[in-house]
Structure formats: structure tokens, C-alpha cells
Amino acid sequence: MYDSRLKNLRQPTISYKCCLVAKLGTALIHVNLPIDPRITRTRQRLIDAFNQLMHDHPFDDITVRDIARQAGVNRATFYAHFPDKHALLDAIMAICFTDTLQRWLVGPLNDPEIYLERLFLAITDQLTMFNGTECQDTFSTFEAVIEVQIKAQVCKHIQAWFRQHIPAQVL
User: Fold this and answer.
1) Which of 2, 62, 87, 106 could serve as 82's disulfide partner, Cβ 3.0–4.6 Å?
2) Which residues of the chain have pLDDT under 50?
3) pLDDT of res. 83
4) Are the C-beta atoms of 17 and 34 separated by less than 8 Å?
5) Residues 51 and 92: beta-carbon distance below 8 Å
6) Residue 73 CA to chain centroid, in angstroms?
7) In which element (H, E) is residue 17 found?
8) What are φ and ψ of residue 151, in 5° steps?
9) Which pairs with CB-CB distance under 8 Å and at least 24 residues apart come from 23-29?
10) Tell me, what's the pLDDT at 131?
């Protein structure tokens, strides 16, 4: 039975900056949204399930039903997080390249040469990881997705670097 005294008690949430983005990648609005840890856990389970299935099956043979079953959720839950398996793949590629960038873009980056060198090394590292001998099939299958993610994030990082290091009157 529902106890109305408990309605204000909620599970702790993590806040993050969320950007609603138009199709062309233009930021429409920035808001701070609380993220329920259950959402994060479910999303991670879907990503892990997809990765496990990719070890055993080609991408085209994997269905949303397979991913949901492997993650222990129903299909409606999958669709609450991703519109389709291609969007899930896109999210995984974005996460992967974000992690690569975070590993390479550390320390003082005031010098443009150092910044661009590390950015180039991050791109090379990402492409090498996907284009290695064990991932050759994966790379050829997802080359376009990888390229889109790399271009989008590199543009975002370069623009942010310019805003931080170049005076506004110069830009």
C-alpha cells in the first residue's frame, strides 16, 4: 500500500549538464537535470549487453529484443533509452571517444601545438583501437559512425579551446 508520507523521499540523484540538440547539432537549451541512478544503471546494462552480443554475433544479426533480453529488461525499457540499436551504437562510440580524449587531453594545454598534437594522438589512438587486427570487421562495419563521432567531438573540443584561449575580439 502506498504511504503518502513517503512521496517526498527520493533516491539520491546525480546532476549533469544536459543539452537538447537539434538535428544539425545546434544547442537549443541547456538545463541541469537530475539523473536517477536507476536510469544510469539500466543504460549501462544495455550498453554491456550490446557489447557482449557483439562478441558473438554480427551487428546486423542483433535485434533490440536480443539486447533487451541480455540486459534483463523489456523492449519498452530499451526504447525509453534509445530509439534503435543504431542510436545505441552511436552512444557507445561517443562514450568510447570521450574516454580516449580524456586520457590524452590532460595537463596544461595552453600551447596550441601541444593541444593539437594531443588531439591528433587521441584521434590516432581511437582509430588504431578500432582498426586493429582483432577489430578490423568492426571498423569496416562502423567506419561512418566512428568518423561522425570523431568529427563532432573534435570540432566541439577545438571550439572550446579557442573560446578559452583566444580573446573574443580576435575571433
Assistant:
1) 87
2) 1-32, 133
3) 95
4) no
5) yes
6) 21
7) strand 14-21
8) -60, -45
9) 25/152
10) 73
